[in-house]
């Protein structure tokens, strides 16, 4: 049975890139020490999150970010540890950077980069939220670890089920989704944290709909809305870290064919547009929908 031992990592992401890098390298070593194949870090874990952890990229130290990224690449190779690293990727001229995930293999090579496709906020009449600071990407990213096809996504994209269906069609069995729901003002009243309910329940739904393993992590900077967790393909949340506490959640993600898959018999036909199960019949009492 194919499996990956995954480290879902969380720590308090700060504007201080050196401090972030220190946490990342420490948790990479911890993951490797526990026999993990892959370490997964949160959205903008290395760079910090513009508009949240710091006001903007004005006067941002991109050279320091590059140096710290290179240190992490080197460590990944030394530890023989696949690493999914949240960061920011500068573009040229006046173009805003990407909010990205670097995919680093167990030889310390950056094999791909995922750029957040659905950035929060709007562009017109005036940019808001992510749109003030980041340029959206336009491509999915898949890669194979020990023969298992993996995919990546970032935060707000959990609101778009189309992305998960697309990854399913690409053969993805494990998805690493990086979030940053910290330093957050509640959207409702102070007694109700909507994100604590919506994020885990939605990710459990996405896992069960598509029969995927999902690693979902978050920054622990206060106030953080929810702790990192892992979801099994049947929708069960099988592990969770402690809120506001740095840590590494280790999960043995097995491609177990016996796991419950409720939509399994009809998933492929529904994706092809047949939105019912079984065999319809020709019957006048079926076609006449206005009479008892």
How would you sum up this structure, described in words?
The chain has one domain: Nitrilase/N-carbamoyl-D-aminoacid amidohydrolase (4-Layer Sandwich). The chain is built from 6 helices and 12 strands. It has 292 residues and is α/β, with parallel strands linked by helices. The protein has helices at 17-33, 62-79, 161-169, 194-210, 267-271, 284-287, and strands at residues 3-10, 38-40, 82-89, 98-104, 110-115, 142-145, 148-154, 174-178, 213-217, 229-231, 237-240, 247-254.
What's the gist of this structure?
The chain has helices at about 15-35, 60-80, 160-170, 195-210, 265-270, 285, and strands at about 5-10, 40, 80-90, 100-105, 110-115, 140-145, 150-155, 175-180, 215, 230, 235-240, 245-255.
Average pLDDT, rounded to a whole number, is 96
**Global outline:** globular
Please report the total strand number as a whole number.
12
**CATH homologous superfamily placement:** Carbon-nitrogen hydrolase
Quickly give the CATH architecture.
Answer: 4-Layer Sandwich
Distance between the termini: 52 Å
Output the CATH topology.
Nitrilase/N-carbamoyl-D-aminoacid amidohydrolase
Element pattern in H and E = EHEHEEEEEHEHEEEEHH
Query: Into how many domains do the coordinates divide?
Result: 1
Question: What is the helical fraction, as a range of percent?
Answer: 10-25%
Please count the helical segments.
6
Q: What about the largest sheet? A: 6 strands, mixed
CATH class: Alpha Beta
Summarize this structure as a short list of keywords or feature phrases.
single chain, 292 residues, alpha/beta, Nitrilase/N-carbamoyl-D-aminoacid amidohydrolase, 6-stranded mixed sheet, 12 strands, 24% helix
């Amino acid at each position: 049975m194919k499996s990956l031992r995954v480290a879902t990592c969380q720590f308090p992401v700060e504007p201080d890139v050196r401090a972030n890098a220190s946490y990342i390298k420490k948790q990479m070593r911890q993951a490797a020490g526990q026999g993990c194949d892959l370490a997964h870090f949160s959205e903008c874990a290395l760079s910090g999150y513009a508009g949240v952890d710091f006001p903007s990229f004005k006067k941002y130290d991109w050279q320091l970010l590059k140096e710290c990224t290179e240190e992490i690449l080197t460590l990944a190779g030394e530890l023989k540890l696949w690493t999914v690293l949240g960061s920011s990727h500068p573009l040229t001229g006046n173009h805003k950077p990407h909010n990205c995930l670097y995919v680093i293999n167990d030889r310390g090579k950056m094999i791909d980069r995922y750029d957040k496709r659905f950035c929060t906020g709007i562009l017109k009449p005036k940019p808001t939220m992510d749109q003030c600071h980041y340029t959206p990407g336009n491509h999915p990213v898949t890669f194979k670890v020990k023969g298992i096809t993996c995919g990546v996504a970032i935060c707000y994209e959990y609101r778009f089920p189309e992305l998960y269906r697309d990854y399913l069609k690409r053969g993805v069995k494990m998805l690493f989704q990086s979030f940053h729901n910290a330093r957050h003002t509640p959207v409702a009243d102070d007694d109700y944290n909507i994100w604590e309910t919506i994020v885990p329940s939605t990710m459990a739904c996405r896992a069960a709909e598509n029969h995927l393993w999902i690693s979902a992590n978050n920054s622990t900077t206060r106030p953080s809305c929810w702790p990192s967790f892992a979801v099994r393909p049947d929708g069960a949340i099988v592990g969770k870290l402690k809120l506001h506490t740095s840590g590494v959640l280790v999960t043995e993600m097995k491609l177990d064919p016996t796991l419950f898959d409720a939509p399994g018999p009809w998933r492929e036909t529904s994706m092809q547009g047949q939105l019912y199960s079984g065999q319809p019949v020709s019957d006048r009492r079926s076609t006449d929908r206005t009479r008892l």
